[in-house]
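#lab-general

N.A. 3:47 PM
ok so I finally got the sequence cleaned up, no stray characters, all 260 residues accounted for. can someone with queue access submit it? mine expired

B.Y. 3:52 PM
send it over

N.A. 3:53 PM
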Amino acid sequence: MELLESLVNLGLNEKEARVYLALLPLEKATAYTVALRSGLKNPTAYVVLDNLVSKGFALKIPQEDKHYFIAKSPRECLAIAREKLSTAEDMLPELMAMQKKSDEKATVAYYEGFEGIKKMHAQLLKNMTKKPVDERSLVAFYAHQKHTPDFLQKYWLELSEKYREIGLKRNAITTLHPSIKRYLEEETKERFGMDLRPLPEKDYSSNISIEVYDKYTQIISHRYLQGIIIDNPDIADVMKQIFNLVWKTTNNKLGLMELL
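B.Y. 4:20 PM
back already:
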């Protein structure tokens, strides 16, 4: 019963799950054999097998006298389910935007893991490329990288290159710490199109990054690889005001020389 329920959770109905379980132990089988093992009538089993083929859970091998069916491995089936879920997640912001035409409620989307963080920034890049080049900008509070995994540090550099490629301008505040030294170098700042101003670690030390653009505020935990995107113009507006207040107090001469 648990196996049946698990397959239903992957997108099969009960009959499809029963047929898949009947087919799985067999190297290949006819619809008649599967019908006997699943307890379904032969015509029903044939229709259900075709459904499994269309959903990617089985293969159909036509031969002169009869057709044979082969179950795909559970690993492949799980990959199919994950791909469908990933596609649905990618479409979610656009679907939510359509819904808000009649319902202007703010929304919050939660992301987890490295793949989730990449999806957040893929959405940011997509939103920005829809705007005229001279309107592509954001403000940010960036974390130090004391507790940032190496693979995430590498991704931030790759992402900064993508920001530069689309002409995204950034004003950002960060923690004055050796882990962000590379971003304070003049060549790097020009390369990434970013005006980055550090605050002394005693005044500001953060393991999270906050990026604010348009009506979106996205918050990412470097240490725990978690993130949220808040789609709320009021929150985004206040965050921009807070950023500007802090920005006015920063010393743009404080930076690389303090770390040498």
